[in-house]
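cron nightly-structures :: item 1 of 1
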Amino acid sequence: MMLMIIGEKHHDKLPQTLVQQLIRDLYSEVYNCNPDDSIFNWIADIKHDINLVS
């Protein structure tokens, strides 16, 4: 599975909290997981904003 988000500008970034929520929502929908499942523990390891590709 790949989540691709494209920014309008080369320097656009997504805040880490938004990235964590997007991944959690995507997994919940695609894999029908409960958002509190242990599969989501690794999401907390995302510590930086994510650069977007333009």
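cron nightly-structures :: done
The radius of gyration is 12 Å.
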